[in-house]
Write a structure and sequence with these properties.
Blueprint: H1 8-12, E1 17-18, H2 23-40, H3 47-76, E2 81-82, E3 88-89, H4 97-119, H5 126-145, H6 149-169, H7 176-195, E4 199-200
Antiparallel strand pairs: 1-4, 2-3
Helix pairs in contact: 2-3, 2-5, 2-7, 3-7, 4-5, 5-6, 5-7, 6-7
Length: 201
């Protein structure tokens, strides 16, 4: 029988549960969008309702920010992770050309779509359009950041955007900011928390 190679994690006592590469940055981006969705789309709520929704959003965002910053500082301090090849290391944050191209395309689509909907006399569909664009852009960001969970996020938020268009055609425009705005906001915050959940490595 051949002796098994020692597991470096067992020798050093390190846990094999780690967050995915790019999780901290991805979580901050998703949580930021989520909080913004809540702030913008609760204008029709009562004062108490709006205050409660935004308060919950701020508390969740603050928790995500603390966990994400702690993770980034820990990684910078040398607590590297095991890459997919099994070697210890940490990818640099992927703020390269691909990332900025995605952001540029997203900004153009958001602006152009909102202007078009307004010119057609349906500015209330703007939030639904934003949810569709933000949702689909997470497909690309999930690939750039190497965060497959964001593909699930992309699907759910995009469906929230489509739900807003369905509400419009169903003659229920009052539900558009709730479906495409508030629900999307909480979905983004929830998935940001999920992104920071350690997985087996």
């Amino acid at each position: 029988m051949t002796a098994e190679a020692p597991d470096p994690d067992h020798k050093t006592g390190l846990s094999t549960r780690r967050t995915a590469d790019g999780a901290e940055i991805g979580a901050l981006i998703g949580a930021g969008f989520g909080l913004l969705f809540l702030i913008i789309n609760t204008g029709q709520f009562s004062t108490l309702g709006r205050t409660l929704v935004i308060a919950v959003g701020v508390i969740v965002f603050a928790g995500i920010a603390v966990l994400a910053v702690r993770g980034l500082l820990r990684n910078r301090g040398g607590g590297g992770r095991l890459g997919e090849s099994g070697t210890r290391g940490r990818r640099e944050p992927p703020f390269g050309r691909a990332y900025w191209i995605i952001v540029l395309i997203e900004a153009v689509l958001l602006f152009a779509g909102a202007r078009l909907l307004t010119s057609l006399g349906h500015p209330e569909l703007g939030v639904a359009w934003v949810a569709v664009v933000v949702g689909t852009h997470f497909y690309a960001l999930g690939r750039v950041f190497g965060l497959d969970r964001f593909h699930v996020l992309a699907t759910v938020v995009t469906l929230c955007g489509i739900g807003g268009f369905i509400a419009f055609f169903a003659a229920a425009p009052a539900f558009i900011p709730v479906i495409s705005g508030v629900i999307s906001g909480f979905v983004l915050l929830a998935f940001a928390v999920w992104a920071l959940t350690p997985t087996e490595r």
